[in-house]
Design brief:
Blueprint: E1 4-7, E2 16-26, E3 36-45, H1 49-53, E4 59-67, H2 68-74, H3 84-88, E5 95-98, E6 111-122, H4 123-133, E7 136-139, H5 143-156
Antiparallel strand pairs: 1-7, 2-3, 2-7, 3-4, 4-6, 5-6
Length: 166
């Protein structure tokens, strides 16, 4: 069973990996300094496929994703690797692991989705960018449903003022 399918064209679906997307990054002093930086990121589409196909949305929700090695460089707590088991078991709600997009079995090829970096981008821009990429990857079932469920779980969390302990 492969986790990713190779696709091409402009049509988007939930679980599409779109690399090199330009996203606006607003500075901490915005709007006072009116500074918006444009960053280039790899993202995965989180908007549901039915909404994209039926034209129910003008913008698509995308989430930053990157190779596990890149994430570990910027996050010292993950350099040793001992925290990755918690992520893999769903105990770190903000992070989700994706199988290697090249369908290899290498753990170094695993990608991390960071649900703390969510962007909304115009669909025509994403369509044009997807077309320009040529071949790209689309997450297959059941990995797609697992990603979708993790995304929903992160945003539906309820923080209690006090946790019951037994």
């Amino acid at each position: 069973m492969t986790a990713w399918a190779a696709i091409s064209g402009s049509e988007l679906a939930q679980g599409d990996l779109v690399t090199g997307v330009l996203v606006p990054i607003v500075g901490s002093e915005f709007p006072k300094d009116r500074t918006v930086v444009v960053g280039e990121l790899d993202v995965i589409v989180a908007t549901q496929t039915c909404d994209l196909e039926n034209g129910k949305v003008k913008s698509a929700v995308v989430v930053r994703t990157m190779p596990i090695t890149e994430f570990a460089q910027d996050n010292p707590a993950y350099k040793q690797g001992k925290n990755w088991n918690n992520v893999a078991q769903g105990r770190v709600a903000a992070l989700h692991l994706l199988p290697p997009p090249d369908n290899s079995s290498s753990q170094d090829g695993v990608w991390v989705v960071d649900f703390r970096e969510v962007y909304s981008l115009p669909i025509p821009y994403l369509n044009a960018h997807a077309t320009a990429l040529g071949s790209r990857r689309r997450l297959c079932s059941p990995y797609l449903e697992h990603f979708s469920q993790s995304f929903g779980h992160f945003f539906m969390r309820v923080a209690l003022p006090e946790v019951l302990r037994f």
